[in-house]
Amino acid sequence: MSAFSDDVSWEWSATWGSADWNWGYARGTAHDRAALLRSAVRSAEARSTWQAARAPVGELILGLALAVQRAENMGRPSPLSDAMAALAAGQYSDEGSACEALLAQMEVHDPSNARLAAIAAMPASEERRRTIVLAALDCVQFAERGM
After folding, report:
1. Which of 43, 51, 105, 120 is 20 to 30 A from 99 (CA-CA)?
2. What is the pLDDT, as a whole number, of residue 3?
3. HEC states along 49-66?
4. pLDDT category, 1, cuts 50, 70, 90?
5. How many CB atoms are closer than 10 A to CB 127?
6. From CA 141, how far away is CA 71, in angstroms rounded?
């Protein structure tokens, strides 16, 4: 379940890889999509439902970026801050490289986590990327703390 209409593109070149994305500013595609996503997942129940649904990986990454941004703005450093800063700076060439960076940062933060070990053993696929971002959302307590 996506918080957006079916015609919204989550292609990397239309999001973090785009000059129109403009992350962190009051104008741009990121700002517009962030407002829609925040509206759709205001409650803890809505966030849990959204996480359990089959939202596009790009949409999940946006939710994660908003959660990390909010935590930092509230003075709660996130274990994923470095990966998210690199994402915002456009340092990843595609969705897969961004997800692998998230996994690596979570493994540094929690090296004995069996869930992360299982994810690392998964073959490269959209399901692996989705599973990585869902684990990252859990890592920042997205459902409980919001964005």
Report:
1. 43
2. 74
3. HHHHCCCCHHHHHHHHHH
4. low
5. 11
6. 10
Dihedral over alpha carbons 78, 99, 84, 3 (to 10 degrees): -90
Structure tokens, 23: 């992350």
With vertex at residue 116, the alpha carbon angle to CA 142 and CA 120, rounded to the nearest 5 degrees, is 130
Do 122 and 128 form a contact (C-beta atoms < 8 A)?
yes
- The DSSP line for 32-100 is HHHHHHHHHT-SHHHHHHHHHTT--HHHHHHHHHHHHHHHHHTT---TTHHHHHHHHTT--SSHHHHHH
Torsional class of 5: left (φ above 0), alpha (ψ -120 to 50), beta (otherwise): beta
User: Which pLDDT score is estimated for 45?
Assistant: 94
Q: Which amino acid is at 10?
A: W
Helices (H) and strands (E) in the chain, counts: 8, 0
Tokens of residue 60, six digits: 């999940």
pLDDT at 54 over 90: no
Q: Give the amino acid at 146.
A: G
